[in-house]
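Section 5.1 Outputs to date
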Amino acid sequence: MEQMHPTVLSEIVHAYDIRGVYPVEINEEVFFTFGQAFGTYAICHGSPESANNNIAVGRDNRPSGESLMKSFIGGLISTGCSVTDLGIVTTPMVNFSEYTSGVSAGVSITASHNKPEFNGLKISFNKKPFLPKGYQELKKFIEIGKFEKGKGKLKKEDIWPKYKEHILQLVKVPHKLRIVIDSGNGTTGLFAPDLFKSLGCEIIELYTESDGTFPNHLPYPQVEAYYKKLSQTIREAKADFGIAFDGDGDRLGVYDEKGNFVQSDFLGAIFAASILERKSGENIVVNVGTSSAASDYVERHGGKIVYSKTGYPFMMNTMQKVRSPFGAELSGHFYFKDEYYGFGDATYAAARFCQIIGEKKVAVSQLVHTFPKVYATEEVRVNLPERTDKEKLIEKVKEEIIRKYPEAKINLTDGVLFTLPNGSWGLIRLSNTENVLSLRAESKKGAGLKQVALLMEELLGAQGVIFNWKQV
């Protein structure tokens, strides 16, 4: 194909994935080229123990996935890499293959929770997530246009039986639960009902038919507006709770027996507490925007909070550095490394939640009500002008906070997290994938929330960023 235009590359290569609209930004030729680039990368960075550069490739159920996967595999094989074709699977099943199928890398063709016209690539290499510098290196290979040459081999593998059996060995649900599963017609619907029936649960299925056009709603568990039918079904069926999955099975959402969404940081704290009950004093890795109520809950159970940048590559790297058995993101990604492999897996996380509720014999809403009361804004996302110097903006905001509140605590792990003397905090964070600011504020008192929210409006307004909180 003709050399890919640098502008196109910049638009589709993001901090921790490759993603674009099909066939406008990505197509079969583009994916063949990315196959060549990643095959070249794998050969250049491989080792004698790298399983002959055998790469596992799977995809979600989007309509464009079949032809894009065929092209990507073709690009890989043309460099001399061999490929294990996993077919339609969840992204965690691709990750699982790295530990069980003797492959050196795993690639998932997916656009996660995005609209059906999107597709992309998520890459893991040598059991580690691809970092931004890895994706930038792929860009360089493509810009230069020189790739390894060879003739790799192709084989197919059905990873599901092995994956299912592994979870069944690790997780036991002590008594029967009634749960509603909403996969939003995403890939998880092909597998989750079978697994949870095997765990002994009574299953009520909602939109579990595989349809990558997502005709009922986008599979995005954290957007409550998409899950009114799930909430209604939970109440009508008198279910113990409901679970929702995103398009490729790495994000989980839980809705309690009343149909209310359990916010992701609370859910992560519940997971962490279950691990800390067995071994106190462990580091628990979370995003900087995690509620103080969730952090306090973890600390009451003997955990130590460690902050990480948002995004699965950063979370997994931080967990490795501090030897953490568990990490949780506000996006609904949960990383278990106490008994599991440490990558985000919504199906496994949902199974662990069933085990926790089965063991505690308590309603999910009662468990949530044990968290301290806080007042918080919803996340507000503010689009920035294209030529905004984002780093300079963050630096000026930080300097102004220090000037106004010299006693404030500042955390720069991911943007600016500032905590005022009264315990109220605000977060101003740059998105890793978009030209967007993400804003959150929280306090243990309503007056404190208004104080920090108004301060954030003032700080950003002085930099020409105007926004309104949805509800304060």
